Amino acid sequence: MREILGRRRRLRFRRRRGPAQLDAALVCAVEWEWPVLPGVGGGDRPGRRCACPDPDCVVPGAHPFDPVVLAATTDERLVRWWWTNRPYAPIILATGGRAPCALSLPAAAGAAALSELDRMGMRLGPVVATPTRWSLLVAPYTLERLGELLYLKDCVPSSLRFHGEGGHLVLPPSETGMGQVWWERAPLPGSATPWLPDVEAVVDALVEASAGAPEAGEDSKLAY
User: Fold this and answer.
1) Strand, coil or helix: what is 147?
2) What is the reported pLDDT for 43?
3) DSSP E strand stretches across 47-191
4) How far apart are CA 113 and CA 224, in angstroms?
5) Which sign does the torsion angle of CA 203, 99, 91, 54 carry?
């Protein structure tokens, strides 16, 4: 009898806890006013890491499909409807506009860049991590402003990617075909909209760190 009661308690706990995506999506959309939408998610067939039609998807599960990124919203009712119907769907942030932008780089290079920025005493905002890439969220920037900054560089490695207007980024606690997504530097719990650094403050360190990472290639799509 004790064993049965213990099993029932564990089952009740699991049902009560449920997936965390809805709560996280509501925080992003309603509290922080970051437009979000559900990602396509992982494939449901053996050998398929993404539910989209592309068998060679380079970011499996970690991108929008239907609806498209232009449908991203901060509307609480729509966010609740999306994740009530698809409770395990990844959370996709539509970057740019009034929402955060981001710069992403291979995980090892990202760790090196964060160490250097910490050594410099740089104040950082949230950092999103996957097993293969880390992304630093920054204040919204325009393509013109980004172009001005990059024009001054001798070389910009292809392993450094930019998520600006019209782009997207997967947010925690999503799980995709690439693995679990987590906050390497989490926003302060219960805080207002997270503070974000200007892109100019971090781009030098990220370019330098990315220069030591392997260039993108057919055999390293996920990693770089």
Assistant:
1) helix
2) 64
3) 91-94, 101-106, 127-129, 133-138, 161-163, 168-171, 175-176, 179-180, 182-185
4) 16
5) negative
